[in-house]
Amino acid sequence: MSNLYELNNIEQHYDGKKVLSIDNLTLDQNQIIGFFGPNGSGKSTLFSLLSFVSKPSLGKIEFQGIENKKMNLDARQSVVMVPQNPYLLKRSVFDNVAYGLKLRNDTSDINERVYEALALVGLDISFSKRKWSQLSGGEAQRVALAARLILKPKVLILDEPTAGVDTNSAQLIKEAVLMAKQKWNTTLFIASHDHNWLNHICDKKVALFQGEIVESGSVNLLFAPWEKDSNGNLVKVFLDGQRLLIENSEHKKRDSVVMVNSDAITLTSMELENSLECHALHGVVSSIHQQQEDFLLIETTVGGVCLNSKISRAEMQKQKLLPGDKVCVTVNTENICYI
Asked: For the whole model, what pTM was predicted?
């Protein structure tokens, strides 16, 4: 899998304040990459850079091996974005969807292409005659998405695509996103507070916190519901009855989303001596992937929840872990984040 983007020593400043700082970030092509983080973490700022709407204050961005300063118009136009609050022209739905093609002087078979794009987001031909002012929030979001899909972009960036939309629209947006990847090998970057929706469709996760990458590719998210122990701390109860206590969380709500770095999860094979006395969570290794030259990413299932942990190749050889092996899973909850 080849690199699509590479960001090095990126900083972005607004009014003298540093709002984004990324030492290195590599994003591969033909993936759906989910971006997580609380409000103000830098997701929208990063998307502005990745879509070439803004230039970084410091650092270098390469797209397909070419620095952004040297990119031609075709390369820039192959990346499109739907912002959190998409703007529609005060025209018909048809004219909104066709607008990008007309700007590019690419109007052959334009009727059929507009209808195809609308169909991808669950809107029929008759809908093309509607005025922009006649659309609900979910319909406007889907029209904005159709206006980008018609361009068959190499990269499609979606900032909170399901915010404020109904359940049906959220599902149709999800289907359109998956279709774009399948039909045109489009790479998608998506930020959403609908963590369950996003977690189900993304191939990779990138988490930001206070303008910095917390961990790229192996972030673990633990979703609600949570229980509270006698001290008011959050307790995750897994489907098999196992429990994970988050210490010093008495001030957090039961609907919290907890983000755990892969480095904070340790695995111990139950085949090792005394490991059967393990008082940690019990899980089963489901898959093993190479992440870096000296590290592997191990996905373990604990009570129906998948947890990723990073392990050195030397430790892997020592424990001789294989898919299907039973392991003890220890979670260090001291450095978790809430989103």
From this structure: 0.74
Q: Which of 64, 7, 32 is nearest to 212 (CA)?
A: 7
For residues 29 and 337, which has the higher predicted lDDT (pLDDT)?
29
Rounded to an integer, what distance in angstroms lies between the CA atom of residue 53 and that of residue 49? Answer: 6
DSSP state of 186: -
Report the alpha-carbon distance of residue 32 to residue 51 in Å, rounded: 16
C-alpha to C-alpha distance for 36 and 33, rounded to whole angstroms: 10
| H or E segment and range at residue 211 | none
d(CA 20, CA 99): 33
Indicate the range of 211-220, 278-287, 305-314 predicted with least confidence: 211-220
DSSP character at residue 15? T
Q: What is the largest CA-CA distance in the chain?
A: 71
Integer-rounded Cα radius of gyration of the chain: 22
Distance between CA atoms of residues 310 and 263, nearest Å: 6
Non-local CB neighbours of 44 within 8 Å, separated by 6+ positions: 84, 159, 191
Average pLDDT of the residues in 61-73: 92
The DSSP symbol for 83 reads -
For residue 131, count other CB atoms closer than 10 A to its CB: 13
